[in-house]
Amino acid sequence: MNRLELDKELKGRGLTEYDYYITGVSRHGLGGHGEIVLDREGSRWVTYSYERGIELDRRHFDTEDEACRYVFEYLTDTPPMGRRLTEDEAKKARQTQRLQIADYERWLRERSRKP
């Protein structure tokens, strides 16, 4: 995920441009009312909450993708969609799910037999 994709995703989820500030993307200045900021410092990416001229909870990331995903999760409380599973990965996930359901159903049966 890059900054433009992040901006599009956040707006698509109903956040306003004043909930966050993305350097090079946002068209407004920093408001200082607690918005989360995504910025670049040299070769690294940084996020922080900006309130009344003070930077709070600074976090550093090696890639733009990591920083964007952090901001997305921070603001939406959900991780962004990742890559699609390969057919083999999907098959293994379905098998694991079937085993978990079978274990749960077995547990329910055993539980119902107890006095």
Describe this structure in words.
With 115 residues, the chain is of the alpha+beta class. 43% of the residues lie in helices and 24% in strands. It has 2 domains: 74 residues, no CATH class; 32 residues. The protein has 3 helices and 4 strands; from the N terminus they run αββββαα. The chain has a 4-stranded mixed sheet with strand order 1-2-3-4, with helices on one face. The longest helix is centred in the C-terminal third of the chain and has 27 residues.
Give the SSE map.
Blueprint: H1 3-12, E1 20-22, E2 33-41, E3 44-51, E4 54-61, H2 64-76, H3 87-113
Parallel strand pairs: 1-2
Antiparallel strand pairs: 2-3, 3-4
Helix pairs in contact: 1-2
Query: How much helix is in the residues?
Result: 40-55%
C-alpha geometry: elongated
Strand order of the largest sheet: 1-2-3-4
Total domain modules = 2
Q: Termini distance?
A: 54 Å
Structural class: alpha+beta
Strand content: 15-25%
Please, what is the average pLDDT?
Answer: 86
Taking Cα atoms only, what radius of gyration do you get, to the nearest Å? Answer: 21 Å
Biggest sheet architecture:
4 strands, mixed
Q: Give me the strand/helix succession.
A: HEEEEHH
Low-pLDDT stretches = none
Count of DSSP H/I helices: 3
Question: How many DSSP E strands?
Answer: 4
